[in-house]
């Protein structure tokens, strides 16, 4: 299968591209720079210049492919609404290009926040709050199942990680600790964050591309929920720093998300797809240290 991958050189895309190529798929990867193009080419993919705001490049990529995996998203937390709007327009463009084709379209969504219980694949997307727009975009993707597209959403937890490289939301905690000398958590720190190693997540995107039925929701969750305080303590232990509670405002707009309890399960995904995470947990990766300078 020839697969068009947006965000092909990004934190998740750089794991998904080799995962696809290793089993014989061809990859056409959307890239924004020469550096990104070289990274995709080095993984034996074919780079296509453009980004989520270049709708012509999205149409061109979808037209050349047998399937699409949409991973690109602006992680500029100072312009979150703009990033959400860009993602929505990109998905609308890809949807129009794929309608009636029967091709697979796999989109990276977010595990929902369900007050009072651990979220599952059967729960609706979160469509309100600071990232509610991303949930509405995921709903748009799932609705394509009624328009001749084999659409699916792989919901990602807030911490997609791999030691020495990236830690998802924990990257914000690490950067703040490196800057302030304090490893901080919000409130009483009992709020839980699910997590997945990015190599395990890459395997689930491939499974969705190859086998997911139209309208399928999958959860790329390995750890259902470590408390924010536990994560801060792991970071503080490695960096030899005090661990303290801070108000949500300390982390800016994303602090409102940090204050929420958001555990999530992948039990149905494992049962239905056979996916099993095998790589190190978030706590294991944090305890290993070797953090890059993120501040």
Please summarize what this structure is.
This protein is α/β, with parallel strands linked by helices and 295 residues long. The chain contains eleven helices and 13 strands.
Write a structural description.
Strand 2, helix 2 (34-42) and strand 3 form a beta-alpha-beta unit. With 295 residues, this protein is an alpha/beta fold. The longest helix has 19 residues, at 80-98. The protein has a seven-stranded parallel sheet with strand order 3-2-1-4-5-6-11, with helices on both faces. The protein has a four-stranded mixed sheet with strand order 8-7-10-12. The protein has helices at residues 13-22, 34-42, 55-63, 80-98, 132-143, 169-180, 198-211, 228-239, 255-258, 267-273, 282-287, and strands at 2-6, 26-31, 46-49, 67-70, 104-110, 150-156, 159-162, 166-167, 183-186, 192-197, 216-219, 223-227, 243-246. The protein has a domain at 2-158 and 195-219: Rossmann fold. The chain is built from eleven helices and 13 strands. It is globular and about 55 Å long. The mean pLDDT is 95. It comes from Streptomyces acidicola. Residues 3-212 form the NAD-dependent epimerase/dehydratase domain. Residues 111-135, 269-295 are annotated as: Disordered. InterPro entries: Epimerase_deHydtase, NAD(P)-bd_dom_sf, NAD(P)-dependent_oxidoreduct.
The tally of strands reads 13
CATH topology of one domain: Rossmann fold
Number of helices: 11
What pattern of helices and strands is seen along the backbone?
Answer: EHEHEHEHEHEEEHEEHEEHEHHH
Q: What is the makeup of the main sheet?
A: 7 strands, parallel
CATH H-level superfamily title of one domain: NAD(P)-binding Rossmann-like Domain
Average residue-wise pLDDT: 95
Strand numbers in spatial order across the main sheet: 3-2-1-4-5-6-11
Shape: globular
Proportion of beta-strand residues? 15-25%
User: Portion of residues in helices?
Assistant: 25-40%
- CATH architectural designation of one domain: 3-Layer(aba) Sandwich
Radius of gyration from CA coordinates = 18 Å
- The CATH class name of one domain reads Alpha Beta
Gap between N and C termini, in Å?
40 Å
Quickly give the structural class: alpha/beta
Low-confidence stretches: none
